[in-house]
Write a structure and sequence with these properties.
Blueprint (H helix, E strand, L loop, with lengths): L27 E7 L17 H8 L2 E3 L2 E2 L4 H10 L32 H6 L4 E7 L25 E5 L11 E3 L2 E3 L11 H19 L5 E6 L11 H5 L2 H4 L3 H15 L23 H34 L6 E7 L26 H6 L15 H7 L12 H4 L3 E4 L9 E3 L3 E2 L3 H9 L6 E2 L2 E2 L10 H4 L10 E5 L2 E6 L2 E5 L12 E5 L15 H17 L10 H12 L4 E5 L17 E10 L5 E8 L2 E8 L2 E8 L2 E6 L7 E12 L1 E8 L2 E8 L12 E3 L19 E10 L6 H11 L1
Parallel strand pairs: 1-8, 1-9, 2-11, 3-12, 4-5, 4-8
Antiparallel strand pairs: 2-10, 5-6, 6-7, 9-10, 13-14, 15-16, 16-17, 17-18, 19-29, 20-25, 20-29, 21-22, 21-28, 22-23, 23-24, 25-26, 26-27
Length: 741
């Protein structure tokens, strides 16, 4: 007779799966990551911009003056999240393209586990809100793959946007793995920053309600202060008087404050203006007025973000969570140079070869910061943001890689309002947090053997201002710009695109005695410079930096061609959701056709297909019984309307774009021409950073109709066919794409 095997409760022993337990006394962790905020932009780092929330956090903890990033957003995020160098994990440049080399895949390698993956395995709840930009944008569509999205890299919940930037009033939102509409509109008072803070509060409140004894990680990556600089008008205008004196005066004021605050040594010298930046007095009164408002928009966006961050901090206090929450506030790189020498009211026009002269900027000045603007400030103000450092984001001089870092943990850090000058790097971020928690990086995650940590914990400096300096050298590289820090010395080379790398001029600075990199010692100490250069090449080989690649346009063009391949036809059926712009038909600089199969009934109206938003895009729609097509370049619209009203019944409604001397848009109804427009407006380098929808225009409206202007007839499908090959201006595409980062 067969033996009985667990046939009754008495014969059985239950086996419960082990639940991960957090380290004893583990704090909650709040990471607040700003975008394109310069070294001096927080009030507690010398700025006149109002950041009382951040300043208060600094007053309850520490400010680091030697914290360094990687000069760009995707790359810094990869280093922060993994504790490794960005090239080592495959994010050598941007998530926007895959160059095919191991260091430049645009996606974090599975061998480089992320902080949320490690914390979740140790009992933490993990939540992310805001900007991701750490997976290829061609993988952000409805079919994924999702393994590089936040939920695929260790976060339990996600609410935010996947791209480098988004419109703050009409964002490209994702919840978990699904695109969603924004919960409100600009006329209803919507702004993305407020929404992200609302979602942050919700995630923490939900967590506390369900698992009060379990610690949490909240990673809040704000859109502020990446372009477009958008904030309430009254906040923006309040800064005009603050900055009307210009960037030369502002730089001096900031340096004076920094010396008084101890942010920089008393003998710190102001560098000469960056290349191409003229004295404020050399610009006309009209130019100064425009430049001032563009800077006010940047300042207003930071001020606005700080006001909403205050709501999150207040919530933590009310919930009795703040004292045991480790708060870290930082920026991902220095202030951005992508606004060019004159800045933009709406960058989307110039990127599509539509000039924006000063007179036009001035006439549209009141639009700055609102939903009809895509503004960015000029080089001079970016230079002031980075005071007293040289150059900008993308560069490996101090202005690109030296950033603010504020840390507070009332229960765990005794210091109040102190400064720390030790060198630290973005790759040190995760090792520091792991040491604070007493955790060891795992040997494997999800069955994948892990690469070693390359960052060095700076946890000892949290308690000891005299903690030893980082003992390991740190390299830098971005678009061929190079640098290496070791033992307080820095070798750095600025690389003009296209110039042979061997022709670059290396500079040498003793950072411990020359905070602002103004005393080049390359001639005085050639042996030391040669030693640091040789070490740079050694680190570069070890960390997958090679081969060096300074190309802008070719990288974007190659990636687009590789992604789309021979595909020339897209079919969008009714019921389709939102499509990110990098996954939508690429109709730039080429002939194309759009055909919608729709049933027209008396009174039918609405959008058949729309790609873009109020700042740039195209739309095919029905209104007042006729078919219309609008192309919108930088807020300037050109519309063609059908000659005759549409007959009821099932119709094929289309538009054809033909290139030549300008562009000709021809409407078609049931295959027959129905109206024609010739214009010089067109998509030369980009369509929009907002995506595509059929049957509605979900964001701010491309055309002169109220969004979403949903189609009230019956829509079966929309087909987009690209004819022939593209004739892209690669350099212009590269510049436009770089402004997106």
């Amino acid at each position: 007779m067969a033996a009985k095997i667990g046939r009754t409760l008495a014969d059985s022993t239950p086996h419960w799966p082990e639940r991960p337990s957090p380290p004893k006394g583990a704090p909650n962790i709040l990471v607040v990551l700003f975008d394109d905020v310069g070294f001096s932009d927080f009030g507690c780092y010398g700025s006149p911009i109002k950041t009382p929330t951040i300043d208060a956090i600094a007053g309850q903890g520490l400010r680091y003056t030697g914290f360094h990033t990687t000069a760009m957003c995707s790359t810094t995020r990869a280093a922060l999240l993994t504790g490794r160098n960005h090239h080592s994990v495959g994010m050598g440049c941007l998530a926007n393209f895959d160059s095919g080399f191991p260091g430049y895949r645009g996606k974090i390698a599975k061998e480089a586990g992320t902080l949320p993956e490690m914390l979740r395995a140790n009992g933490y709840g993990t939540y992310m809100v805001g900007k991701w930009h750490a997976t290829p944008l061609t993988e952000t569509g409805a079919a994924g793959p999702f393994d590089g999205w936040p939920l695929g890299r260790g976060f339990d919940r996600y609410y935010g946007f996947m791209d480098a930037e988004t419109d703050q009033y009409s964002p490209e939102l994702v919840r978990d793995n699904t695109p969603i509409d924004a919960p409100a509109t600009y006329p209803e008072g919507y702004h993305l920053t407020a929404d992200l803070v609302d979602q942050s509060i919700r995630y923490v409140a939900d967590h506390v309600a369900d698992a009060p004894d379990k610690p949490w990680l909240l990673w809040l990556a704000l859109g502020a202060c990446h372009a477009p600089h958008q904030a309430p008008r009254e906040i923006i205008e309040s800064y005009d008087a603050v900055f009307e004196g210009g960037w030369d005066v502002e730089r001096e004021r900031r340096l004076e404050r920094q010396k008084a605050l101890g942010i920089v040594p008393p003998d710190t010298r102001m560098p000469e203006r960056n290349d191409g930046v003229k004295a404020w007095a050399d610009y006309t009164a009209d130019e100064q007025k425009v430049f001032t408002r563009l800077q006010s928009a940047f300042a207003g966006m930071l001020d606005h973000a700080d006001r909403h961050l205050a709501r999150l901090i207040d919530f933590l206090e009310q919930a009795d969570l703040k004292d045991d929450t480790l708060i870290l506030v930082l920026s991902d790189n220095g202030a951005s140079q992508e606004g060019g020498p004159f800045g933009f009211v709406n960058a989307m026009g110039p990127y599509n070869m539509k000039p924006e002269p000063v007179a036009e900027k001035l006439a549209r000045l009141d639009l700055v910061g609102g939903p009809d603007s895509h503004s960015n400030f000029p080089h001079g103000w970016a230079m002031a943001s980075n005071t007293p450092l040289r150059r900008y984001k993308q560069n490996t001089h101090g202005g690109g890689i030296r950033d603010p870092l504020v840390i507070s943990w009332p229960k765990g850090i005794a210091a109040r309002g102190e400064l720390r000058g030790q060198f630290a790097h973005a790759s040190d971020f995760t090792p520091t947090l792991l040491e604070v928690l007493g955790l060891t990086p795992p040997d494997a995650i999800n069955g994948v053997v892990q690469m070693p940590m390359e960052g060095v914990s700076f946890a000892p400096s949290l308690a000891d201002p005299a903690a030893p300096a980082r003992g390991r050298a740190q390299y830098f590289e971005m678009f061929g710009h190079r640098g290496l820090w070791k033992d307080g010395w820095k070798a750095v080379a600025y690389h003009p695109p296209g110039r042979p790398f061997d022709d670059d001029r290396w500079e040498l600075f003793h950072l411990d005695a020359d905070f602002s990199e103004t005393n080049d010692l390359a001639q005085a100490e050639p042996a030391r410079l040669a030693e640091l250069q040789a070490l740079w090449w050694k680190e570069a080989e070890a960390c997958q930096v090679l081969p060096l690649d300074d190309r802008f346009a070719q990288r974007f063009a190659e990636n687009a061609a590789r992604y789309s391949g021979p595909r020339k036809r897209f079919v969008f059926h009714k019921g389709m959701g939102h499509l990110p712009t990098d996954c939508a038909p690429d109709v730039r600089s080429r002939d194309y056709r759009i055909v919608a199969e729709a049933r027209i009934e008396p009174g039918s109206e609405g959008v058949l297909i729309a790609h873009g938003d109020a700042t740039c895009g195209y739309s095919l729609f029905v209104r007042d019984g006729r078919l219309h097509h609008t192309i919108n370049i930088g807020g300037t619209r050109a519309t063609v309307s059908s000659d005759a009203p549409l007959e009821p019944g099932w119709r094929t409604l289309g538009v054809t774009c033909s290139q030549g001397d300008g562009r000709t848009f021809t409407l078609t109804v049931d295959g027959a021409p129905a109206g024609e427009l010739h214009t010089y407006l067109g998509f030369a380098t980009l369509i929009s950073w907002s995506g595509l929808d059929i049957g509605r225009d979900r964001g701010s409206a491309v055309g002169d109709y109220p969004a979403p202007f949903s189609f009230t007839g019956k829509l079966r499908k929309v087909t987009v066919t690209m004819d022939g090959e593209q004739d892209l201006d690669g350099e212009a595409v590269g510049q436009a794409e770089m402004a997106r980062q």
